[in-house]
């Protein structure tokens, strides 16, 4: 099945939900299972989410046959900030469709955190070198914090440009509007008084936490943002 066909199903799912709530459905990237991420309002109840999933299964089954050895499709229902309401698995011959609620709805789902991490890591890798030992331009932490954020350490100030930050914001705008990328300064070689929290990068704004006048006076030529 072509990816364009899966995207068409996602559009139809959003249209089908319109009489219940405004929902945005995004196609996932799992190779063996057709994955759909349904972004729903914060006040949508779990019961309503399950009801929507049952309606969506009828739509999906028109195009996606049940799998003989595993689930054919999966719907992950997400509230803002990436917190998961639950997951609905569909289409395994001999098995009933199942709903699995997230035990802790206040914490971002690990799969969602990992998906954003992979996108950011791939994007940053096209602009510089990552190295946990500070022998590169930056390091994107691969340890999950338990919150809707990602932590980026900057070792070379020239790496932090308007273009780089704008690209990070574009990624956040695509399904992670309430997430934050924290950019910390740990310049190498060390420069006195410049280590700081750096920037808070949001989808719609950037909050400067550093002492810009100090950074500019000491490293003005290297300051690109």
Q: What multimeric state do the chains show?
A: single chain
Question: How many independent structural domains?
Answer: 2
- Strand percentage lies at 15-25%
Number of strands: 10
Give a verbal description of the structure:
There is one protein chain. The N and C termini lie far apart (44 Å). Helix 4 links the parallel strand 7 (149-154) and strand 8. It is built from five helices and ten strands; from the N terminus they run αββαβββαββαβββα. The mean pLDDT is 86. It is elongated and about 65 Å long. It has two domains: 3-101, 2-Layer Sandwich (Alpha-Beta Plaits); 110-222, no CATH class. Strands 1-2-3-4-5 form a five-stranded mixed sheet, with helices on one face. A five-stranded mixed sheet has the order 6-7-8-9-10. By secondary structure, it is of the alpha+beta class.
List the helices and strands and how they pair.
Layout: H1 3-17, E1 24-27, E2 34-39, H2 46-61, E3 73-78, E4 84-90, E5 98-101, H3 110-125, E6 138-140, E7 149-154, H4 162-173, E8 180-185, E9 196-201, E10 206-208, H5 212-219
Parallel strand pairs: 2-3, 7-8
Antiparallel strand pairs: 1-2, 3-4, 4-5, 6-7, 8-9, 9-10
Helix pairs in contact: 1-2, 3-4
List keywords for this structure.
225 residues, alpha+beta, Alpha-Beta Plaits, 5-stranded mixed sheet, 5 helices
